[in-house]
Amino acid sequence: MTGKKKLIEVALPLEAINRESAREKSIRAGHPSTLHLWWARRPLAACRAVLFAFPRRRSLGPPELFPTDSEQEKERDRLFDLIERLVLWENNNNSDILEAARIEIEASCES
User: Fold this and answer.
1) Backbone CA torsion sign across 102, 104, 105, 107
2) Comparison of pLDDT for 81 and 26, the residue scoring more
3) Are 58 and 108 a contacting pair, CB within 8 Å?
4) Model pLDDT for residues 1-23, shown as the tens digit of each residue
């Protein structure tokens, strides 16, 4: 597994993750965090992004699938778009997005 960095080691859409994490912390009605103030609560947005990016063994998949810089950029943009949709509070129960993330994670894990 030498040379195969995980997506979390290479890049993440941090601006979108930070924005959604801050927004999630400011929700004051209908959010579980309003039941009790936790001193070290971690927003679901950040947790989902990390859990999605961590198991990806390779940042963009096998090099033969994305041999050029433009193809790698396009794939990175596709993954970032999925992460950005995954971290939205409104999508917590969106089965289409959760299924897309599950498929990506499953595909990235070695059998």
Assistant:
1) positive
2) 81
3) yes
4) 455 677 787 788 889 998 988 88
Cα–Cα distances (Å) from 71 to 22, 62, 74, 97, in that order, read: 32, 12, 5, 23
Instruction: Show the DSSP H helices in the chain as ranges.
Output: 7-10, 14-26, 44-53, 69-86, 95-108
Cβ proximity of 44 and 96 under 8 Å:
no
Quickly tell me which residue has 């609560």 as its tokens.
41
Closest-CA residue to 105 (of 45, 61, 71): 61
The torsion defined by the Cα of 24, 30, 36 and 42, in degrees rounded to 10, comes to -20
Look up residue 59 and give its DSSP letter. S
Contact 11, 78 (CB under 8 A): no
Is the whole model's pTM more than 0.85, yes or no? no
Which range among 1-15, 45-59, 79-93 shows the weakest confidence by mean pLDDT?
1-15
